[in-house]
Amino acid sequence: MKSDVTIRVAQPCDMDDVYRITYDAYLDMNYCECQSEARLIHYPHLDNIPVTTVLIAEEDGDIVGTASLTLDGEQGLNVDSDYKAECDKVRTEGRRLAAAWRLVTTDHDRRVVLGLIGHMVHVVVSFDVETCLFTFNPHHECVYKRLLNMETISGHNSSVQGLKNAPSVLMRWDVEKCPSRWLPINEDDERIVDRLMAKKLATLKAKPLGERNDQSESESR
Question: Is 132 among the domain residues?
Fold first, then answer.
């Protein structure tokens, strides 16, 4: 019998494991070349800044999956590198925007994938995000349309920047279209955020949006 999967916000000491399992997963899918350090840091300017949240899934003390979320700001989003025009078009709608990225698992366990997605939705809602952008392999496009009522806004890109043989589609998640079963019950629900997430959320919400972006920019360079 498989153990329960626990999902929490990553701490700085977890990031090496995040880079390791990202490398292992992408190498297994032939999305990257072999590297002696066996680590993949795909968008380094988006790590270790206040507007990026990294989730990790643990099973029996081992990290078995991860997913990241970045709020839009001066630092931009990961999807800008491949879909800048489409992202800018969404920005003109004036909605609070974010992007989810680096969704990987060590063994393609459906429990881990669904757990990470569920917690990611809760984090997105906690930050009052209205629209979240994702890139997925085209083979998974229909799955996310069915699960989360996502919409494809750009067709097949031959490969994501920095990777090889990694075709993608750009999809959007809108909070008002999300099936209710994915949404948090209330703001105190422990499934939304752990104590570390709550502290980070309070810090960000206490600052004007412009100040958040200025800080993000200074720390990302």
Answer: yes
**pTM (global) more than 0.85:** no
**C-alpha to C-alpha distances, 67 to 31, 89, 206, nearest whole angstrom:** 17, 25, 25
Please give the Cα distance from 185 to 149 (Å, whole number). Answer: 19
Alpha helices per DSSP H over the chain: 15-28, 80-91, 110-126, 141-148, 195-205, 209-220
Q: Give, in degrees to the nearest 5, the angle at Cα 28 between 101 and 111.
A: 60
76: which 2 tokens? 């931009």
Structural contact between residues 40 and 22, judged by C-beta atoms closer than 8 angstroms: yes
- Each residue's pLDDT tens digit, 28-86: 888 878 889 999 998 999 999 999 999 999 999 899 999 999 999 999 999 999 899 99
Domain total of the chain: 1
- In single-letter form, the type of residue at position 175 comes to V
For position 98, which CATH number holds? 3.40.630.30
The H or E element that residue 54 is part of is strand 52-59
